[in-house]
Specification:
CATH architecture of the largest domain: 3-Layer(aba) Sandwich
CATH superfamily of the largest domain: Acetylglutamate kinase-like
Structural class: alpha/beta
Shape: globular
Oligomer: single chain
Number of helices: 8
Strand order of the largest sheet: 1-4-2-3
CATH class of the largest domain: Alpha Beta
Distance between the termini: 33 Å
Mean pLDDT: 94
Order of helices and strands: HEHHEEHEHEEEEHHEHE
Number of strands: 10
Length: 220
């Protein structure tokens, strides 16, 4: 959404694509799970009278729109990319499978995995955790608007203190809104480290790849 109040900010989109292309050129294999809140949020839709299942399905379709936008921007930047969807919608995207994702990653493609888990009642966070675990990623990077995890919301509390590292159990016991509980527990049970950082600053993704401590690591 970037600086816009709704939809897709073309400038932010091209910034993301360039950052992703930059690390792909280093030989990093990249799987991306993208949300759809800039277009439609299933849960907020349910609060406004939408059937929850249909609202979540609308949210899944919103993630596909974003996936297509990002794939187009990556192609324009000269990066090989494929879109896989958790629900069948060929020719918009290919139907997701672990084997297909790994094969494409091995051929140098950035793989965008859209439509969440394909099921209602599961957030994009949970979809991200599931896909990271499935494709046996080294780490799940969560790009947000803030530069890590704090004791409170830094956008609301000026006294909030940032963690450089934190355990899954601390995140859960403190009730920190890193991801939803289901996603956090999935990562904990499968030993998937999470790195939270600010994706909206150009160059940050490369800094994460180089090991610069600009965010927060969630680990056992």
């Amino acid at each position: 959404m970037g600086a816009k109040g709704y939809g897709i900010d073309e400038e932010r989109l091209s910034q993301y694509a360039e950052q992703i292309r930059e690390i792909a050129a280093m030989g990093v294999q990249i799987g991306i799970v993208i949300g759809g809140g800039n277009i439609f949020r299933g849960l907020s839709g349910a609060k406004k009278g939408f059937d929850r299942v249909k609202g979540d399905q609308m949210g899944m379709l919103a993630t596909v729109i974003n996936a297509l936008a990002l794939s187009s921007a990556l192609e324009a930047a000269g990066q090989k990319v494929r879109v896989l969807t958790a629900v069948r919608m060929e020719p918009v995207g290919e139907f997701y499978s672990k084997a297909k994702a790994l094969r494409l990653l091995g051929k140098g493609n950035v793989v965008i995995m859209a439509a969440g888990t394909g099921n209602p009642y599961f957030t994009t966070d949970t979809g991200s955790s599931l896909r990271a675990i499935e494709i046996e990623a080294d780490v799940m990077l969560k790009g947000t608007r803030v530069d890590g995890i704090y004791t409170a919301d830094p956008e609301k509390d000026p006294k909030a203190v940032k963690f450089s590292e934190i355990t899954y159990d601390e995140v859960i016991s403190r009730g920190l809104k890193v991801m939803d509980l289901t996603a956090t527990v999935m990562c904990k049970e499968n030993g998937m480290p999470i790195y939270v950082f600010n994706m909206d600053i150009p160059g940050n993704l490369l800094k994460v790849m180089k090991g610069e401590p600009i965010g927060t690591l969630v680990k056992p």
